[in-house]
């Protein structure tokens, strides 16, 4: 038995040698600006919980009430007997929030992409992807028999060239797929240009707004940010980031939603998320609608922090959102910076090759609406000292 699975250990050891393995650090309580990580008090700079909703009493109360009313689980796949009225209430709420005709949810954003994309395209179609798209889009694309093309990150001339060539080939349909906000660099997709090209070349537009919801467009996401709600044909998102809860979503036309829940295999063949998740999601959307100040605080923190780290000499790349990379170059240096920050009580993630280019290793800092100025100043003071010590700045 042991020999049969030895290859697993060899592969692990190989990854470890190259410094590619994850060290899992577990939280001893809720995800919020101040956390306990394996017994150590830390300032959280690594979570996607942008609006500080993950431990919000209103989300918790909605979830608890839903557990009391509906139980702990949905009991079945979405398609068979797992859809409850509270899920339907959430669909309506999402559609209104996103200003689309209709919406549904998936277990996760990952499940939405990997379940839907393979149904949207097949032989005779072309899928066009930004090279930095999220892995769940990449996996969705891999599950199709469609032709594929990848353009260099946000390179609109390259995208146009692909669309131009595609026009000569008589494809049945062409779909452009992109992240809304790119998770490693924190830059925003050039949606105006993408939608214009799509219109010109009769292509469809598919946007995964996981890091943009709750952040862009007064919290409503990238569609509202660019006033392109009607131009984006497929809007994917997640409740697991700014909305502080869990679950994937899809918003678009009524035709799209009917199609999705009859075709997407992760919707058809996998359980609905529990009713209390739907309840927390509804509460999160309510709060984002009613408390525009929360989104504003997130952006105030982002602007302040970015300005300060840049003036110290840190390279933040193309960041334009609450994802602020501190690009240091070598993987080893990024890891040392993250370790030293952790020693000082700051939890931030080192991101190294192969997640980013070999010479672009970085610390990814993520802002939170719940950070106070004192929190940010604490982090800045440490970053300045450690950055100098390691000769990064
Ligand atoms: C985080 C992320 C996902 C995954 O969302 P989950 O709901 O956590 O599965 C999908 N797409 C993008 C672009 C993401 O950033």
Summarize the structure.
The protein is built from 15 helices and 13 strands.
Explained architecture:
The structure is a single chain. The chain is α/β, with parallel strands linked by helices. The chain has two domains: 2-55 and 292-389, Aspartate Aminotransferase, domain 1, CATH 3.90.1150; 57-290, 3-Layer(aba) Sandwich (Aspartate Aminotransferase, domain 2), CATH 3.40.640. The chain is 44% helix and 17% strand. The chain has 15 helices and 13 strands. The protein has helices at residues 6-17, 57-70, 78-82, 85-98, 109-120, 135-142, 156-167, 191-200, 222-225, 254-263, 265-268, 275-290, 292-312, 331-343, 373-389; strands at 34-37, 40-44, 102-106, 125-130, 147-151, 173-179, 204-208, 234-238, 248-252, 323-329, 346-347, 349-351, 361-366. Strand 4, helix 6 and strand 5 form a beta-alpha-beta unit. Helix 5 (109-120) runs parallel beside helix 6 (135-142). The chain is globular. The structure holds pyridoxal-5'-phosphate (PLP). Residues 108-110, 134, 136, 179, 183, 208, 210-211, 238, 240, 248 line the site of pyridoxal-5'-phosphate. The site of pyridoxal-5'-phosphate has 13 residues, from helix 5.
């Amino acid at each position: 038995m042991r020999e049969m699975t030895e290859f697993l250990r060899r592969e692990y050891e190989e990854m470890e040698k190259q410094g590619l393995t994850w060290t899992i650090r577990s939280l001893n309580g809720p995800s919020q600006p101040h956390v306990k990580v394996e017994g150590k008090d830390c300032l959280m700079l690594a979570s996607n919980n942008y609006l500080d909703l993950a431990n919000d009493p209103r989300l918790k109360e909605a979830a608890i009430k839903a557990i009391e009313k509906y139980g702990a689980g949905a009991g079945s796949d979405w398609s068979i007997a797992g859809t409850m009225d509270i899920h339907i209430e959430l669909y309506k709420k999402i559609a209104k929030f996103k200003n689309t005709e209709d919406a549904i949810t998936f277990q996760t954003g990952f499940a939405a992409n990997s379940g839907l994309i393979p149904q949207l395209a097949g032989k005779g179609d072309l899928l066009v992807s930004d090279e930095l798209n999220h892995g769940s889009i990449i996996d969705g694309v891999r599950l199709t028999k469609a032709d594929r093309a990848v353009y260099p990150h946000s390179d609109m001339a390259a995208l146009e060239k692909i669309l131009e060539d595609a026009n000569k080939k008589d494809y049945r349909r062409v779909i452009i797929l992109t992240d809304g906000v790119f998770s490693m660099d924190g830059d925003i997709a050039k949606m105006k240009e993408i939608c214009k090209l799509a219109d010109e070349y009769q292509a469809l537009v598919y946007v995964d707004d996981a890091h943009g919801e709750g952040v862009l467009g007064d919290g409503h996401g990238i569609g509202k940010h660019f006033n392109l709600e009607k131009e984006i044909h497929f809007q994917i998102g997640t409740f697991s980031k700014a909305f502080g809860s869990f679950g994937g979503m899809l918003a678009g036309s009524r035709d799209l939603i009917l199609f999705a829940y009859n075709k997407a295999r992760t919707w058809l063949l996998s359980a609905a998320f529990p009713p209390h998740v739907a309840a927390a999601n509804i509460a999160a959307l309510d709060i984002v609608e009613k408390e525009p100040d929360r989104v504003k605080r997130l952006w105030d923190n982002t602007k302040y922090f970015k300005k300060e780290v840049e003036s110290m000499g840190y390279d933040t790349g193309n960041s334009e959102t609450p994802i602020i990379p501190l690009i240091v170059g070598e993987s080893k240096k990024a890891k040392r910076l993250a370790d030293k920050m952790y020693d000082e009580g700051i939890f931030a993630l080192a991101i190294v090759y192969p997640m980013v280019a070999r010479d672009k290793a970085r610390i990814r800092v993520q802002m939170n609406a719940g950070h106070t100025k004192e929190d940010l100043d604490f982090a800045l003071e440490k970053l300045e000292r450690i950055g100098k010590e390691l000769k990064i700045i």
